[in-house]
Amino acid sequence: MNAKLLPEFSILLGVRLKDVRIPTHAAILRTAFAALLFAATIACSQAGQSLPKIKVLATGGTISGAQTSQMEAGYKSGTFSVDDLIKAIPQLKKIAELSGEQITNIGSQTMTHEVWLKLAARIDEALEVSDNDGVVITHGTDTLEETGYFLTLVVKSAKPVVLVGSMRPATAISADSAINLYNAVALAGDPQARGRGPLIILNDTIHYAREAQKMQTTRMDTFASPNRGIAGMINTGKAFFYSANTARHTTKSEFSVDGLTAGNLPQVEVVYSYTNLGGEIIDALVDQGAKGIVLAGVGDGNTTDAALAALERAAKKGIAVVRSSRTGSGIVDRNVEVNDDKLGFIAGMELSPQKARILLMLGLIKTTDAKALQQYFYEY
Question: Where are the domains of the chain?
């Protein structure tokens, strides 16, 4: 290298080298030293770029399931452990430092409040550790959106929380479990995912847990966000976000799991409306001690005259009644088709019946006042 280039190296390295006439052999030595110093600086810089530390909390589901035969649709959820899942994808080591913990190993159709509370507590504990950058939760898809929304309301960290499942078991032909888990880990380590609340990732698509809904029984594009649209897309681990999460969540939520047990969560039930629905089921739920009832109503949260009369009786007894819709999308606003002011009902707004149940359950821990509960449905 020409000795005239030494000043440029000195600027790049931050080392002051005097620009003087020197013998040729000294110039060569000096240039070599500068080159070595430059290489060492680059190496140190690369070494300093440590991988994000991600905690994987496993709950079971299809993503850890196995078939008895690849030619059959049936499989057993929760066959593989969290360590099995991590070891099966060696590429994960290139994008994150991983540690795993098995919370439970079940199909999500059998998800319980006990597991929710344990999971939420472990997420908060894991993210309180300063060097943990995010959490990934492996989960069955059947109730993934419910778990995700519960965590949206109670987790107390701005760090990424990513829920992931799969529509095909790990042993299936063309299984989607490996790429979904890879994308979930990449997303949990992405600074762009901070402050957005829990996210759901499947089929290269990112959803806010509040918005996501399972819409199809078997296809890999089963999840949609029908009201506000998807949060973004992910392509081989690189995320592209399209919108912000404007609802209250996580660090801005007033709900938490502190002091909660499954036993002190209020009983809230969902009543599905259909032709000729009577009021007997609603009356029975009140007699059984339900503190809240969510109507999965037809159209704009409506139902039969007999069912409305039973819901009015329930509201007069202090039972919180929320109107939502069985249609799968849209807004159930106040006093549209049904006079909520007169009957003492709460409008479920954008929330599906299953998510309205979760918000009402947590809301009833705070208050039984219908107006205050209505405000929750406006904000969350």
Answer: 3-48, 53-252, 266-379
Average pLDDT over residues 208-216: 98
What is the bridge-based pairing of β-strands 205-208 and 320-325? unpaired
**202: nearest Cα among 189, 190, 217, 219:** 219
28 Cβ neighbours under 8 A, 6+ residues apart = none
Rounded to 10 deg, the angle between the 24-48 and 6-13 helix axes is 30
306/319 Cα distance (integer angstroms): 17
Residue 351 contacts residue 296 (beta carbons within 8 Å): no
Catalytic residue among 24, 41, 59, 62: 62
Tens of pLDDT along 92-109? 999 999 999 999 999 999
Contact 67, 83 (CB under 8 A): no
Say whether pLDDT at 264 is over 80.
yes
pLDDT tens-place string over residues 357-374? 999 999 999 999 999 999
Which option is the CATH number for 53-252: 3.40.50.1170, 3.40.50.620, 2.60.300.12, 1.10.10.10? 3.40.50.1170
Structure pTM? Answer: 0.86
Q: Which of 38-47, 171-180, 193-202 has the lowest mean pLDDT?
A: 38-47
Give the residue among 366, 327, 365, 317 at the shortest CA–CA distance from 348.
Answer: 327
Active site residue 368: no
248: alpha, beta or left? (left if phi > 0; alpha if psi -120 to 50): beta
Tally Cβ neighbours within 10 Å of residue 312. Answer: 17
Look-up of token digits 């209505």: 374
- What does the pLDDT read at residue 73? 66
d(CA 59, CA 49): 31
For the domain with range 266-379, which CATH number is right: 3.20.20.70, 3.40.50.40, 1.10.10.10, 3.40.50.2300?
A: 3.40.50.40
pLDDT value for 223: 98
**53-252 and 266-379 have identical folds:** yes
